Amino acid sequence: MIVLGIETxxxxxxxxxxxxxxxxxxxxxxxxxxxxxxxxxxGVVPEIASRAHVTAxxxxxxxxxxxxxxxxxxxxxxxxxxxxxxxxxxxxxxxxAKGLAFGAGKPVLGVHHMEGHLFAQSxxxxxxxxxxxxxxxxxxxxxxVDVPAWGDYNVLGATRDDAAGEAFDKVxxxxxxxxxxxxxxxxxxxxxxxSRFRFARPMVRRNxxxxxxxxxxxxxxxxxxAVLNAVRDxxxxxxxxAHIARGFQDALIETLAEKVRRxxxxxxxERVVLGGGVACNQALVAEIRTRxxxxxxxxxxxxxxxxxxxxAMIARAGLFHAERGRRDDWSLNAYxxxxxxxx
Length: 343
Ligand code: KG4
Ligand code: ZN
Known about the structure:
By secondary structure, this protein is of the alpha/beta class. It has two domains: 2-118 and 306-323, ATPase, nucleotide binding domain (Nucleotidyltransferase, domain 5, 2-Layer Sandwich); 129-301, 2-Layer Sandwich (Nucleotidyltransferase, domain 5). Helices cover 41% and strands 20% of the residues. It has ten helices and ten strands. The chain has helices at 46-68, 87-104, 113-120, 164-174, 182-189, 221-233, 237-266, 282-295, 304-307, 311-323; strands at residues 2-7, 12-21, 24-34, 77-83, 108-112, 132-137, 142-149, 152-158, 271-275, 298-300. The chain has a five-stranded mixed β-sheet with strand order 3-2-1-4-5, sandwiched between helices. A hairpin with a 2-residue loop joins strand 7 (142-149) and strand 8 (152-158). The longest helix has 30 residues, at 237-266.
């Protein structure tokens, strides 16, 4: 089966072609056009994102097909992200996918963006398939998901306020670093002394038990405020910036690593799959590997291209559903929010 995937949920216009059956699926092409324009605003401006998708979508999809060496008539299904995300941005992808599919007499299928992230690693690592524990950490989402099988998603925990990437971006802004700030914080933190600023690990208590409502959930707004206070109290921010970045990053990644360890241990999973832009953070990946070594679980971290938003993961998730006969009709719509695994 050949699937064309389209992703426009935020600020990347992306298209990709995958082909195969079952878990033997290969990526035939992947085109990602990042909208750099948002950097000057320090965050994604929804209306600008929608307009940029309109400009880019036709050449990006054409390029993905030509790099894969296929024509539209070779495609079996067009898969498109239809939730969650910026609704105007999503609508560009959904409308284009529907028009393209209808014109070519092909079926269209809507894919949940976070389900795409769960599938991304399987394109690179043959063993990154269920059963596994997943940590999805991006600018908009932070969730820990137990995945006994493809299509069966049990969200164990999520952030109660800021997403992990959002916390990185806000702290980067406090330290005067460019947007998006995650990789700048990671670089700065390498020069930081971990003993200089020790921030509390949010929602990690020794006496927590499975079943407690904060056993898997995370919260980063208190950590962000602690960083703000440290920045305000510093009499030499140039000297302290790297130490503060290190203290912040240590607190955030130790919290996430501990929650992932709990999830893998309680569900006896031997594989842990990471996804989302924050999974590019090497210190996070190393910390999770260290903690999971005790549990005996293998950790699968994606490459930068497949960790961040891309259409290959959407095409891959679409192929799974298409093989099971799922098709959407022409009323397929875009939704800003939608629970993972809700159909
Ligand atoms: O998945 P993604 O590309 O887009 C969505 O938000 O869906 O994630 C972007 C987020 C940004 O918040 C960015 O700062 C963060 O991922 N990020 C990182 C790193 N690289 C990207 N955070 C920490 N360390 C990194 N190396
Ligand atoms: Zn994403």
